[in-house]
Write a structure and sequence with these properties.
- The structure is a single chain.
- This protein has a single domain, classed as Rossmann fold (3-Layer(aba) Sandwich), CATH 3.40.50.
- About 40% of the residues lie in helices and about 20% in strands.
- β3, α1 and β4 form a beta-alpha-beta unit.
- α1 crosses α9 and α3 packs parallel to α5.
- Its EC number is 1.3.1.9.
- Pathway: Lipid metabolism; fatty acid biosynthesis.
């Protein structure tokens, strides 16, 4: 508690007693980690899910300073693995307050060529992993979610405007943002909120698979109102805000953390 003039004010967000599932952390650069680490620092009890055993040792190393943090294996396209992850959460936590969905994938070939050449198989893979998974995660989580619960997913501006080479992932992100609104409507009667964070480009493993990503970073910084790229730390802070009660009146929204890139129509100065 601090004091400004005669008005008391609180600094920090205390999430002790809250439980969270964080999906999609590969390493310390992952945007899932940017939010997950904030949840841990705020005192939430967390379980981090990983796609395959290959990732487990690195994840456990990352989580080592946070005693009592759990991990669970789950490929989001596998119904049986989703079922067993949520059974584990029920057994360990009893209920769930927050979910961070930071999962996306499109076959590299679908982002190297022309959008018009997208195969049906690549389309299905990208939309299944990157958009449908939010719906199936929400369905499996629903019985466990506490009143006041909150779900956050990660999206990108290519859902709204053409970003060359983003291709089918742009379509997947458009479906993800629309799914966020439909889920927000349906879960709203239980006082569970669902929001999307639209992050500017950031160096992560997933971003490396986007052809020309480095020049995308510098172009974005040039155009942005703040004349720089947003940071994963800023994604983390927005994630914490959208999960916590500070944002209790906000649901179904796509909120940008892109240093003011998306507000610009043109830049010629
Ligand atoms: P990241 O560190 O590579 O995270 C993506 C995660 O998705 C990885 O942990 C990956 O696991 C996981 N994943 C992929 N397929 C999966 C599946 N079938 N089941 C379970 N997990 C699966 O990259 P990131 O950039 O932080 O991505 C997180 C989210 O942020 C994504 O939705 C991405 O589109 C979004 N985003 C990123 C940027 C950016 O510029 N980086 C900008 C806007 C939005 P594996 O490592 O095992 O494949």
């Amino acid at each position: 508690m601090g004091r400004r003039g005669n008005l008391p004010y609180m600094i920090g967000i205390d999430l002790s007693g809250k439980t969270a599932l964080v999906m999609g952390v590969t390493n310390s650069y992952s945007l899932g980690w940017a939010i997950g680490e904030k949840l841990l620092q705020a005192g939430a009890k967390c379980i981090f899910s990983y796609q395959g055993e290959r990732l487990k040792p690195a994840l456990e190393k990352l989580l080592a300073p946070y005693e009592g943090t759990l991990t669970g294996q789950c490929d989001v396209t596998n119904e049986a693995e989703l079922e067993s992850l949520f059974a584990q959460i029920k057994a360990e936590f009893g209920s769930l307050d927050y979910i961070v969905h930071a999962v996306a994938y499109a076959p590299r070939a679908s982002m190297e060529g022309r959008f018009v050449d997208t195969t049906q198989e690549d389309w299905n893979t990208a939309l299944s992993v990157s958009a449908y998974s939010l719906v199936s995660v929400a369905r499996h989580a629903e019985p466990l979610l506490n009143e006041g619960g909150s779900i956050v997913t990660l999206t990108y501006y290519a859902s709204q405007k053409v970003v060359p080479k983003y291709n089918v992932m742009g379509i997947a992100k458009a479906a993800l943002e629309a799914s966020t609104r439909y889920l927000a409507y349906e879960l709203g009667s239980k006082n569970v909120r669902v929001n999307a964070i639209s992050a500017g480009p950031m160096r992560t493993v997933a971003a490396k698979s986007i052809p020309g990503f480095t020049s995308m970073l510098s172009k974005a910084a040039e155009m942005a109102a703040l004349k720089r790229n947003a940071t994963s730390e800023e994604v983390g802070k927005l994630g914490l805000f959208l999960l916590s009660d500070l944002s209790s009146g906000i649901t179904g929204e796509t909120t940008y953390v892109d240093a003011g890139y998306n507000i610009m129509g043109m830049s010629f100065e």
